[in-house]
Design a protein that fits this description.
Order of helices and strands: HEEHEEEE
CATH superfamily: Hotdog Thioesterase
Oligomer: single chain
Helix content: 10-25%
Strand content: 35-45%
Number of domains: 1
Shape: elongated
Number of helices: 2
Structural class: alpha+beta
CATH architecture: Roll
Radius of gyration: 15 Å
Distance between the termini: 20 Å
Mean pLDDT: 92
CATH topology: Thiol Ester Dehydrase, Chain A
Number of strands: 6
Largest sheet: 6 strands, antiparallel
CATH class: Alpha Beta
Length: 135
């Protein structure tokens, strides 16, 4: 884990996402499906998976930043491949490209059997100087 760089945001407690591994350019989070995550159809609501992916991709990206830098998400795209009814979902995020200003992050979300349930990508913009203040 990159020391002092990542405190869990309040939304992590609200939704139940947990950081399990953080390395330079890579992060793994998990989420245990709960009844309050369900859509009207009974499967996990897609926005919950998006929160999980966003947390993992953000952590992977922030692990590459300098102490005086921050970032903003420019785009987040999620493909839902299989419904989730219950169990633990693991999100593994990896920075694919970290340019000076723009980066691309990939996230694979799998169920307990290792089956891919969703795939997400995020385009991030590194902020410096006054742009990074207060973020």
């Amino acid at each position: 884990m990159v020391e002092g760089r990542l405190a869990p945001p309040p939304v992590a407690d609200l939704v139940g996402v947990e950081l399990t591994t953080m390395e330079r350019g890579r992060a793994i989070f998990h989420l245990d499906a709960r009844p309050e995550h369900a859509s009207p159809l009974g499967t996990m609501q897609g926005g919950i998976l998006c929160v999980l992916a966003d947390a993992a991709m953000g952590a992977a990206y922030v692990s590459l930043l300098e102490d005086d830098e921050s970032f903003a998400t420019l785009e987040l795209k999620t493909n839902y491949l299989k419904p989730v009814w219950s169990g633990r979902i693991t999100a593994t995020a990896e920075v694919l490209k970290a340019g000076r200003t723009i980066g691309l992050v990939d996230c694979r979300m799998t169920d307990e059997g290792g089956s891919l349930v969703a795939h997400a990508t995020s385009t991030c913009m590194t902020l410096r100087g006054s742009q990074a203040e207060g973020r």
